[in-house]
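Might I ask for a little of your time on a matter of protein folding? Here, with my thanks, is the record as I have it:
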Amino acid sequence: MSIFVTHLLLLALTGPVLWLIRPHRIPFVGWLAAIPPSIVTVWQIMQLGAVANGHHLTEQIAWLPELGLELSFRLDGLSLFFGLIVTGIGAAIALYTAYYLEDDPRLGYFYSLLFLFMANMLGLVWTDNLLALFVFWEGTSITSYLLISYKSDDENALAGARTALIVTGLGALAMLAGFILLGQGSGTYSISAIIAGTPFANHPYYTAATILVLLGAFTKSAQFPFHFWLPAAMAAPTPASAYLHSATMVKAGIYLLARLHPALSDSPLWFWSLLIVGGVTMVLGAVSAFRYYDIKALLANATISQLGILVVLLAFNSPEAYTAAVVGILAHALYKGPLFMVAGIIDHATGTRDLRRLANLRQGMPWVTAVAVLAGLSMAGLPPFFGFLAKETLLETFYYYATYDNATIGQIGLWVAALGGALFVGYSLTLLWEAFFRQTAPAQPAHIHHTPAFWFVFPALLLTLIGTIIPFVTGLVEKVLLGAPASAIANTEIKVHLALWHGFTPVFLISMLAIAAGVALCWQRARIRALFANVPAWLTGVGVFDWLYQRSYDLARLVTRVVQGGQLAGQVSITFLCLVGVLLYVLIGLDGAAEFIIDWRVLPEFHEAVLAALAIVAAIVTVRAPDRLSAIISLGVVGVVITLIFVFFAAPDLALTQLLIEVLTVVLLVLVFFRIPPIVHIKTPRFVQWRNFLLAVAVGCVGFTLALFSIAQPYAPSIGDFFLLNSVSAAHGGNVVNVILVDFRGFDTLAEIAVLAIAAIGGYGLLRASRLRPLRPAVAEQTEEQAQAQKPAQKRAQGERSGHD
C-alpha cells in the first residue's frame, strides 16, 4: 500500500478506535492518542535530508484518469514543511486534549473529529492533484464545523460553526471553479505539472481562475472582508482553537497561495490583490485585538493579523519575501498554538478567560506563566525570540523592495509593517501584564480552583521551547527546515540566512521604534479600548454577515410566497413559464438552427392523422367537460390513443406500459373523485383566463417546436452507431437498450443514492431533535408535581370567576 495512504489511514482510523474504547475512562489516554501523529512526524523528519537535497517522494494511484481524477501525492519542501506542522502540533494537541476534556464522556467523539481533521489537513498539503486537494479541503471544512459545534447546546458555538461553514464553503465552491479553469487551461490537474509548465499569466482563463482561487484562499485564511468568521469560531473547545485556528486550518489558504505562487504570481492582479487584502487584514486584525477582554478573542484577532502578513509576503517575488513567509508560518505556529493552550488552561483552572477578572496568575501557575511569557514575548517580536526573526524578515522584505524595486510601495509597506509590529507588542504585553503580573483585577477577581498538572502544561511548554531554541540554532535549520519550503515557493533554489544580530541597520532601528511604540500602546490600552466601546454592531463583519443571512431568509420567504403561494394553477403557471423561457433561450441561441430542415412534402398516413385528431379532440373535451367523470373518461381516451400510436410505430413494450398506466390512472381517479364532494368553482377573472390561455399556447408551441426538431435533420451526430458497435464487445450485453440504460442510469442511480442518503441523514437528525425526544423521568416527574401544585390555584381561580359571574 502507498506510504502516504497508510499514514492517512493511520490518522483517520485512530479517532474511531479511541471513540470505541471510551477514552475518558482510560488513564494516560492522551499519551496513547499522541502516538499516531508522532509516528507520522518521525517519518517526515526522516525525509528532511533527502528533500533538502532536491529529492521528491511521489506516488500516483489512478482512479478516473480520463477525467483527470487520480490520488497523487508529492512530498517536497513545502508539503513536508506544512506536514510537520500538522502532525507535530497535532501530537501536542492530542496530549493536551486528554487533560482539557478529562472525564468528558464525549472525549472519544472529539478525538474522532480531531484525527479525521488531521488526516484531511495532511492530505491537503500532500496531494499533487487539484481535484483531490478540493476534496481534502472540504473535508477540513466539514470536520472543523463539527469541532466548532462540539458544544451542541451552546448557541454561540452553533452560530460560529454555521458562519465558518457558510463563508469557507462558498469560498471553496469558487475555488473549485478556479481549479477547473486552471486544469482545463493548462491541460492537467497535476499541481507539479502546472507549476513546472509555462506560466499561466498569459492564458485567457488567468483572470477568472486567479480571482476564484483567491476567493477560496481568502475565505479559508480569514482575510478581509471574510475575517469575521474566525473570532466567531472561538466558541469551539480550546484544543480545536489551538489546532485549527492558529496552526493548521487557517493556514490552508496560505498553503494554497504558496503552492500556486510559481504559476499565478507573475501578474499585477496577483500582486495588488494580495498586497491590499493582506495589508488591510494585517492592520484590522491587530487593531481589533485591543478591543477584546476574552483571551481567545484577542488571540483570534492576532491570528487574523498574522495571516494578513503572510498573504502580503506571498505577493512578492523575492528571496527575502519567501524567507519571511516560511519563518513567519513556523514562528506563528510555535507561539500561537501554546498561547491558545494557555488560554484553555486558565479557563480550566479559573472558570473564565476574561482579562478583567484575571490578575497575578504567576503565583498559582508558575509553569503556565513561563509558557505565556516565552510565547507572548515571541508574539510581540522582542529579541531574541523566534517572533523577532519573523518581524525582522518582514521588515527586510519591504526595505529591499523599497531599495531595489519601488521606493513608494516599499516605504509605505515598511511603515505599515512597523505599525503592525507596534500593535503586536501592545496587545502581547497587555495580555501578559493583565493576566499574570498585575496585583489586582478591576472586576470580580477569579480564583484558581485547582492548579493545573505539569503534564497539562507540557505540550504547550514543549512547543514554546522549540520556538525559543530555533533562533540560537539557525545554522542547523536554515537548509533542512526553512530553505526547502522557500525554494518550493520560488520554484528555484533559495539559500536562507538568518541571524539575530545584523548590526545597527535601518531595519533594526525601525524594529526598535516599533517596540517602543508598542510599549506606549500597552500603557494607553484603556483609552484604546474606550474607542471601541461605542462601535455599532453593523460596522463589524459579524453584523454585516448576520444582516445578509437574515435577508437571504426574507428573500427565500418572498420567493416562496410568489412561486408556491396561492392556488395550484398559479404555481403550475410559474413552473411552465420558466420552462418556456429556458427552452426559448436555448432555441434562440442554437448555432445550428439554420440546418433545421423538415421535408413537409411527406404527408402522414390516414390512421396517423385520425389518431392525432382524436387525441386533440379528447384533450379539448377533457378541459371543457362539465363534470369529473367525463373529464376522466376523456383523459383515458387520450392515453389509449397514445397507446395505439406506440403500437403503429412498432413499440409494443411502450404501448403495454402506457396502457397499464392509463387503466390504473383512470380507475384510481374514479375512486378518488367519487369520495370527494363536488366543489363550486368561483368564476375565474378575465386576466387569469388570458394568462392561462397565453401560457397554454406558449407551452404548446414550444412542445410542437421540440417535436419538429426530433424529426428534423439531427443537430449532432447520433450515438446510436457507437452503441450498436460496442454493446456486445465492450459492454458485454446483447440488448442495446439495456446497455444504454446501464450507462446513463448508472449516473442517475448514483445521484438517487446520494439523495436518499442525504434524506436519511436529515430524517435521522430530525428524529433525534430535542423537541421530539420524550421527557426524561426526572423532568416528567417534576412536570407532574408542578401540575399537581397548580391544581389548587386553578380551582381558586375558577371559584373567583364563578363568583364574579
In short: The chain has 32 helices and two strands. Confidence is low (pLDDT under 50) at residues 778-785, 793-805. The first strand starts at residue 57 and ends at 64.
